[in-house]
């Protein structure tokens, strides 16, 4: 996918479900097939009900679902808690959540690849601020804040 290619937009919930399934180590093809055939986990460490993805996005908008899996996606609308959850599910780390009015933020260590990926999926109105830059292949510290805090 080139940078100019427009990514499909999916809900924050669908993104969380998709990232949780990715964490199972399935190939893109297997993930698509299992969701489309509703062959999904019903127990285990996750609290997610994957049937929602199978009966929702994958059934109602199959082209969008397949594109989200294979080409990536952008979340339609993020919440501060949703961003924290997405980082936890997608990257397997627990970010810090700040809910102080006017200072809302999610702070997390991110590698360069994770930073780039997060930047592609965040909905409009959110920005990633560098706290401590990435040094080489190691991670840096970043804060994700609403646009209202960048002025």
Helix content: 40-55%
Radius of gyration: 16 Å
Number of helices, where a helix is a run of at least 4 consecutive DSSP H or I residues: 7
Largest sheet: 4 strands, antiparallel
Order of helices and strands: EHHHHHEHEEHEE
Amount of beta strand:
15-25%
Q: Stretches where pLDDT falls below 50 for ≥5 residues? A: none
Shape: globular
Distance between the termini: 32 Å
The helix/strand class is: alpha+beta
Average pLDDT works out at: 90
Counting DSSP E segments of at least 2 residues, the number of strands comes to 6
- Which sequence of strands runs across the widest sheet? 3-4-6-5
Structure, described:
The chain has 151 residues and is α+β, with helices and mostly antiparallel strands. Helices cover 40% and strands 19% of the residues. It is built from 7 helices and 6 strands. It has helices at 12-22, 28-36, 51-55, 57-60, 62-71, 80-91, 112-121, and strands at residues 8-10, 73-75, 96-98, 105-110, 126-132, 140-146. It has a 4-stranded antiparallel β-sheet with strand order 3-4-6-5. A two-stranded parallel sheet has the order 1-2. A hairpin with a 6-residue loop joins strand 3 and strand 4. Helix 1 (12-22) runs parallel beside helix 6 (80-91) and helix 2 runs antiparallel to helix 5. The longest helix has 12 residues, at 80-91. The N and C termini lie far apart (32 Å). The model has no long low-confidence stretch (mean pLDDT 90).
